[in-house]
Amino acid sequence: MEIGSQSRWRGLLHPLNLAGLLTWCAVAFTLSYGDAALQPWRWACALLFLAAFLVATALPQASWQRATLLLVEAVAALALVRLAHYSGVAPALLVMLAAQVAATWPLRVALLAVAALNLGMYFVLRGVNAHAGVVVLIFAGFQAFAMLTTHYARSAEQARDRLALVNADLLATRALLAESSRDAERLRLARDLHDVAGHKLTALRLQLRALAGRADAPAGLALCEQLSAELLGDIRAVVQSLRDSGELDIATALHALAAPLPRPRLQLRLDDNVQLRDTGLAEALLRCVQEALTNSARHGDAQVLHVALRQHDGRLRLDMHDDGRLRGELREGNGLTGMRERVAEHGGRLQLRRGASGALHIQAEFAA
């Protein structure tokens, strides 16, 4: 089983889902009562509801398959309400369904759907229960509680995800700024060494050379002139080393970007020959990976995002794909359009395609 599938089935351990399973068990406990001839039908409806519930829990929220299964749950629950009307417990399944509806659609749509469910429950109970309206009102209160609990839990999770994205953006930007500051400091030190120490050592060497050429030059003056020449060469080597080491640590910035996110996990492969000195290009790379992380989490339900960065023939190549599955057609929204624009600003091109596993595969090439 793929990692993404394992994660979806682990969603059954969510507290709200566990509460739903406990509710189903409570309803199932009452199915043996009542007309024995209808007992197989009652169990059939209950098991159909449970199967649809379990599969719907493992599916992405915004999918037509999940919506279809919720409809199956609604039909099975209403049928069970009619067949087990004597116990008064079967409508609890509609409370489970109301929570699922609130987790699937916006609150307004969920309210309309649950109102239709309660209207259906009233019609199936009207002929067999003299207090059908009271039963509907009682369970409508439970449904409202379940819906609001789920709605606010979902809102809190979305707010947490948005906060994680902002935090990741800040951490990655801070890492880039820190690296840029270190680069600027290295450049300043290189200039100071070259302009101050190098200049004075050159003057000192010239003076020593002039003194060494005199007839009354003391012993050891030639050695001092040689040592000053070697010291000047050492300083020039240090200056060149400081200038050459001004590469941005893009790996640290990328890991800082992905660290706060609950998923997907970033798996980075960075070739040894990658050299990045342009802060603007580093930021463009950072934003491309950020958008890929967001897409993988929101649209692909991915657990791992694979990112490879290579440099070849003066071009910087960024390759990204995840272990999720893209839902629906591949369309460029604002995020992917912004990614394409960033790549174009740095003389590159962007390619998008759906991989063999159904995941989005992004390839970007920059002029290094």
TrEMBL record:
Domain named Signal transduction histidine kinase subgroup 3 dimerisation and phosphoacceptor: which ranges?
185-245
Chain ranges passing through the membrane: 12-34, 40-60, 67-85, 105-125, 132-153
Record-linked InterPro entries: HATPase_C_sf, Sensor_HK_TwoCompSys, Sig_transdc_His_kin_sub3_dim/P
Q: Which Pfam families match?
A: HisKA_3 (PF07730)
Q: Which superkingdom?
A: Bacteria
* Keywords recorded for this protein, A-Z: Kinase, Membrane, Transferase, Transmembrane, Transmembrane helix, Two-component regulatory system
- Protein name per its UniProtKB record: Signal transduction histidine kinase subgroup 3 dimerisation and phosphoacceptor domain-containing protein
